[in-house]
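I am still getting used to backbone structure tokens and would like to learn alongside you. Would you supply a protein for us yourself, any chain you care to pick? Start from the sequence, derive the backbone structure tokens from it, and show both lines together. Go ahead whenever you are ready, and we will take it from there.
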Amino acid sequence: MVYRVPSAVLKALNTVTKRRVRLEWSNDRFATVGGTMDVYDSDFTCDATSQVRWQASCAAIDVDHRVNQLTTWVRAFLEIKGVRAQWWTIPMGVYRIGGMVINGRYTNFELEGLEAVIKDYRFHIPRSLPMQPQDTPQITLSKLILEAIPTANIIWLIKTAQQPMAPVTFDRDRWAAIDGDSSSKSITGAYSADCYVNRVGTFVAERTVINPTDPVWTITVDKGVKVSSSTTLTRENMRNVWTVWAAPSNAPVIGPLHIWDSNPFSPTYAGVDPIRFGAAGASSFGIVTGFYQSPLMRDLQMLELAGRKRLALSLSARRYVSITSIFNPTLDAGDCIGLIPDGSDHQENFVIEKVNYKMDDAATQITLRAQGPMALVESEGEEITGAPV
């Protein structure tokens, strides 16, 4: 979900003369608002690689005694004002208070997004899903969220998940059934998607952004824009071959399906066919295999989407960018932005994986992900009766 403001507000970011961060707080999930407070030392992070996407820290003076770490939720807002312009309010997330440090009149807050509420509410006994045989993945996901947060707003943007959900049993982890980490056999994982809470507190289920498309913002590095950049160089979690299959309950195994880096000019090239011919023709990176299985995937197309997502995310280059003279607090993880180097007219597009805002300094730090590699897909067919071990 992309948060947008009028173009006039974006143009005014370079001329912002005033800004303040305000919290609204509530002890009844915002059925009522208990009050507001201005905060300082504000630090907000939106991270697509974290199971709790929005997290923040801040400090305040003379906090209301009713604000606490047990029942209080807060809505954060950044208010900005440019030269000869009116104040503009930008939402910066909805949180529960995860911790407080009180020192006289001063209070420091640690804030965590609402996914944390779902993560805490684990299943008391193993849970068989769907709850009703006719329930779709969308209905099941919504029920799991609403059990934990009855007032939650949920937006479902996965258009292909219209059939009743395949049966599956989860032991304890509610969030792993909804989304979870990269290895979870979750509802969104089966559809190459993510579920997260956006900056206005709504749960969103949508396809994972794999390849950068039209950028929502472009950064031109020149005398007015100071951008420091570094590229992460590590083999950690890199996989150039993925084997994906589905093992539905009381049904034949689907797959396995193999997806690999098929670009012969890529440093992680896996060769012509690493399944049949091993590492013959592969780059000196070698063959590094990843595996993913979900009983919720129904056909080879879903297997292919899951494999392509994992290949792209595991091989795409990460670039750490610090923007010191432009402040754009409307950017979210999952947005596409363009970078134009100094003195160049060539633009390269990236997906934001993580963005951090230091409000008092008007500084933005971004981790960008480049486009994933080319991929070849080979299936061993739907009639196979076994699965990789």
Q: What stands out?
A: The chain has three domains: 7-113, 118-207, 211-389. Residues 136 and 162 are 6 Å apart (CA to CA).
